[in-house]
Design brief:
The strands form three sheets. Strands 6, 7, 8, 9 and 10 form a five-stranded antiparallel β-sheet that branches. The protein is an alpha+beta fold and 452 residues long. Among the domains are: 109 residues, Trigger factor ribosome-binding domain (Alpha-Beta Plaits, 2-Layer Sandwich); 100 residues, Roll (Chitinase A, domain 3). The chain is built from twelve helices and eleven strands. The two termini are 57 Å apart.
C-alpha cells in the first residue's frame, strides 16, 4: 500500500492511497465465487451459472462493495503513517475499482490544527479580591434555621384560629370546574405559596384548631395567575377532612441555636464560619474568572483555525446538557419557546471558545511536557470519594467503566496547565471595574444596534 498526504488547509487534509491489484484479486474472485453459488438464473441449475456471466451481471456491484470495504479498512492506517489524527470519516473524492488495475482512492478529512503556542508567559491578568456577600451568609443561616425548624403538636386545649405556619393534614374531595379533585394525606402549610391547589391556603385561614376530626365544605375561586388557563374563572367546591394540625417552631438565631448545629459555640462564631465559607467560594470564583481572562488573552495572541467538526460536537454536547438540565426540572425544550436549532445557535460562541481553549492549552501542555501522574489521579479520586461518601475503589471502577476516568485525567491536566500559566503570569489584584452609567446619548446610539 502506497500513501501520500496533501494538506488542503489548516484543518483539512487529503490522502491518496494506492493498493496493487494483486492484493485485491483474491478477495474479488472469492466474492464472485460466493455469488456463483447463490445465483438463481433461468436455464441454469443452482450453483452452475458460468463465472463469466456472474461477473458480467454482478461484477460492478462486487467492485463497488469491495472498494468501500478497502477504504474503511485502510484509511486509518494510511493516515496514521503520516502522523495525522482524523476527526471525521473520509469523504471519498475518487475511488473506482477496475479489474486488473491498482486501486487508487482520494479521501478528504478534517484534522486538529497544528498549533505552535507563543507569548504564553508573563501575561498580565487581573484577579479581583474575594468579598463576603452578606445576603449569601444570611441564606446559609436561613437554610440551617429551616433545617432545625420543627412541626410540633399543639398544646391540648388550644382554641386559636389557624394562622401562617400552621400545617394541616387534609383529605380532599370535590371539583374544580368540571374536573374532579381527590387527594388523601395532603400536607398544607398556611401561607405557603407552593400549595397543592392555588388559593386553598387562603381559603382555610382562620379555621379553628378544634376542626381536627371534622369535615367542612368550602367554595372559593383559586388564585387565577397560578392556575391552568382552561380552569381560570372556575370555582372549586371541596369537602375537606381535617385530620391533623401542627404548628411551626422556628428556633431563635442565638447562641443556643449555634450550639445545636454542632458547628459553633456561639451565633457570632457561626456567622463567622459561614462568612469564611462564602469568602472561600467567592475567592474560587474570582480565580476562575481570572483564568478565563488569561485564556482569552492567550487566544488573542495565538490565532488559529478550528475544524468545524470539533465545534459541532461541542455544540451538540452543550445542547444535550441544556436539555438534561431542563429534564431535571420536568421541563421540555418546546416549553421554553425555543427550538433545538435556536439553542444550538446560542451555544455556538461558547462552544467555539471551549474548543479553542482546549486546543491551545493542550498545545502549551505538550510544549511544557505537563503530564498527569497516577498519584494526582489517586488524590482526586480520594477527594471525590469523600465528597460523595463512596468507597474509592468502587468509584474508580465505576468511572473507568463509564469512561469518566479519561475525562477526570483531562480535567486534572487542564488545571495543571492553568496552574503553570498563572504561576508565570503577571497577576494584579484589583476589583472589577464599575460599569459607566448610560447617558441619553449612549442610549440613542445603542438603540439602532439593539433593533437590528
Amino acid at each position: 500500500m502506497e500513501t501520500q498526504l496533501e494538506k488542503i488547509n489548516a484543518v483539512e487534509c487529503r490522502v491518496r492511497v494506492q493498493i496493487p491489484w494483486e492484493e485485491i484479486s483474491p478477495r474479488f474472485d472469492k466474492k464472485l465465487r460466493e455469488l456463483q453459488g447463490q445465483a438463481r438464473l433461468p436455464g441454469f441449475r443452482p450453483g452452475k451459472v458460468p463465472p463469466q456471466m456472474v461477473e458480467r451481471l454482478f461484477g460492478k456491484n462486487v467492485r463497488d462493495e469491495l472498494a468501500r470495504d478497502i477504504v474503511q479498512e485502510t484509511f486509518q492506517s494510511a493516515v496514521t503513517q503520516h502522523n495525522r489524527v482524523p476527526l471525521t470519516q473520509p469523504v471519498l473524492e475518487e475511488g473506482t475499482l477496475t479489474k486488473g488495475q491498482a486501486f487508487v482512492y482520494l479521501a478528504r478529512f478534517e484534522v486538529p490544527p497544528e498549533i505552535q503556542p507563543k507569548d504564553y508567559t508573563g501575561v498580565p491578568v487581573r484577579r479581583r479580591p474575594a468579598v463576603v456577600d452578606a445576603t449569601k451568609v444570611d441564606a446559609l443561616i436561613k437554610a440551617k434555621q429551616d433545617e432545625a425548624t420543627e412541626l410540633r403538636p399543639l398544646a391540648e386545649g388550644s382554641e386559636r384560629p389557624t394562622h401562617a405556619g400552621d400545617t394541616w393534614t387534609l383529605d380532599i374531595e370535590g371539583t374544580l370546574g368540571d374536573v374532579n379533585v381527590s387527594r388523601k394525606d395532603v400536607r398544607l402549610e398556611i401561607g405557603d405559596a407552593t400549595e397543592y391547589l392555588p388559593g386553598l391556603s387562603k381559603a382555610l385561614e382562620g379555621t379553628p384548631l378544634s376542626a381536627v376530626g371534622s369535615t367542612r365544605t368550602i367554595t372559593f375561586l383559586p388564585t387565577q395567575e397560578r392556575i391552568r388557563a382552561d380552569l381560570r374563572g372556575k370555582e372549586a367546591t371541596l369537602t375537606i377532612g381535617f385530620r391533623d394540625v401542627r404548628e411551626k417552631h422556628v428556633p431563635n438565631l442565638d447562641d443556643d441555636f449555634a450550639r445545636e448545629t454542632g458547628e459553633a459555640d456561639s451565633f457570632e462564631a457561626l456567622r463567622a464560619k459561614y462568612s469564611d465559607q462564602v469568602r472561600e467560594e467567592d475567592q474560587n470564583e474570582a480565580e476562575r474568572d481570572a483564568r478565563k481572562r488569561l485564556v482569552e488573552t492567550l487566544l488573542e495572541r495565538n490565532g488559529f483555525e478550528v475544524a468545524p467538526s470539533l465545534v459541532a460536537r461541542e455544540v451538540a454536547a452543550q445542547v444535550d446538557l441544556f436539555k438534561r438540565q431542563l429534564q431535571q426540572q420536568n421541563i421540555k425544550l418546546n416549553q421554553t419557546g425555543m427550538s433545538e436549532q435556536q439553542v444550538a445557535q446560542q451555544m455556538r460562541p461558547q462552544a467555539l471558545f471551549n474548543v479553542k481553549a482546549f486546543l491551545l492549552l493542550d498545545a502549551i501542555g505538550k510544549v511544557e511536557n505537563l503530564v498527569v501522574d497516577e498519584a494526582e489521579v489517586d488524590k482526586e479520586l480520594q477527594n471525590l470519594a469523600e465528597e460523595r461518601s463512596q468507597n474509592v475503589d468502587r468509584l474508580r471502577a465505576t468511572m473507568e467503566k463509564n469512561n469518566q476516568l479519561l475525562l477526570l485525567r483531562a480535567q486534572i491536566r487542564e488545571e495543571k496547565i492553568l496552574d503553570f500559566l498563572m504561576s508565570k503570569a503577571e497577576v494584579t489584584e484589583a476589583p472589577d471595574p464599575t460599569p459607566e452609567p448610560e447617558t441619553a446619548e449612549t442610549a440613542e446610539t445603542a438603540t439602532p444596534d439593539a433593533a437590528t
